[in-house]
Amino acid sequence: MNEQWSSKLGFILASAGAAIGLGALWRFPYLTGMNGGGAFFLLFIFFTLLIGMPLLISEFIIGRGSKREAVSAYAKLQATGVWKWIGRFGLVGCFLLLTFYAVIGGWILTYSILSLTGSILRPGGNYEELFGYIVGSPLISIAGLVVFIAINVAVLSFGIKNGIERVNKYLMPLLFVFLFIIIIRSLTLDGAMEGVRFFLDPDFNKITTAGTLEALGQSFFSLAVGFSCMVTYSSYLGNNQSLPKSAGSIVILNLLVSLMAGLAVFPAVFAFNLEPDSGPALLFVVLPSVFEQIPLGGMFLSLFLLLFFFATLTSSFSLLEIMISAFTQNKRYKRNRVAMISGLLVTVAGIPAALSNNLLSDVSLFGRSVFDLTDFVVSNLMLPIGCLFIALFVGYKMNKSILFEQYQLASGGLSRTAGLWYLLMQTIVPTVIVIVFIFGLIPL
């Protein structure tokens, strides 16, 4: 690779930004609310440390060990058989994921703009109707999609140091600052402690088999593993950085943001006697109802939406970068041109998902809208398959000398944990992934 991260912090913040997005700030709170609170949070922590972190280290090792972006990394390390297709599979997965991810990013951008102009909060406002209007408008949905992708293209055109790394150095700290402000406001509400108890006091009687599987699936989402995004990011990394230490830092940041997201959402929800199991509408419908009743609620809602938009952007950077890097390896093509073409392709492919709640609302494939079907295929089928093949590749096909060399570089005392990590990748990780994949397809 011709580019590299300029600092260890830049790599960690960019990688954390790739992981912290819709998964941590949107998906985690509503899944926690639907699965009983504290027990789900503990299971999520357990699976993140046991399954997610070893997979994250593995993607880092593949990237730096090959010094190639995701598509060519596997072919360099194991040129025979189906293994060289893992990176291409991840490329397709990232492309499909971004087609509906960018639609949600457009919704959040729309909400952010409306919030800044004071157009959301109204006494007794019907926020479900507002959400329906926004997603039901073809013009708003497509405009949001186009602008969201355009921002991605603009940032990624500048490359690793001047694009992704520079932007993340500002966005990630801002995310923590904004989220901290929301937490302070939420915790000072009357009745907030009931929400804290719901979130942090585990009641395992509320956990079901489906909830356990969702906690495990969330550990995949929260660390952005499975589609080799982190293979591409780590290919820009020098040998002076410990991969397990970097992975540990990213896992800690991810768990911290999940904790902070819960402390921002649930105290406010319980303070106003709202339902924590409102599902995906928790952000767009329930939270405006909460902020409407809080002094300076408009300001706090704007802060929350802006940080949410920032987090969504930093995640989408990694999804688009895997496409761009596949064609800019060794400067075969100019980065800005590839970024524009990639952005255009994603935008065109994302239009059906953007129209799923309006012009194409009557179109159904296998009982799902285009948006929901794409989400299901990516989340329930492609993601666990990608994780499984990465685990098998590392556990049984990749050269052991490269594996252990990359694990131990600059790792100090952590070098002694290489054997445990390798054992997890050979046994526990693939076994659990197969269970998630099988039971994830069976209605429970």
UniProtKB/TrEMBL annotation:
Record carries keyword Cytoplasm: no
Bilayer topology annotation: Multi-pass membrane protein
Transmembrane segments: 9-28, 40-62, 89-110, 130-158, 170-188, 220-238, 250-274, 294-317, 338-356, 376-398, 419-442
Matches recorded under InterPro entries: Na/ntran_symport, SNS_sf, YocR/YhdH-like
Coiled-coil positions: none
Organism domain of life: Bacteria
Subcellular location: Membrane
NCBIfam families in alphabetical order: Na_transp (NF037979)
Family from the record: Belongs to the sodium:neurotransmitter symporter (SNF) (TC 2.A.22) family.
UniProt name for this protein: Transporter
Organism: Alkalicoccobacillus murimartini
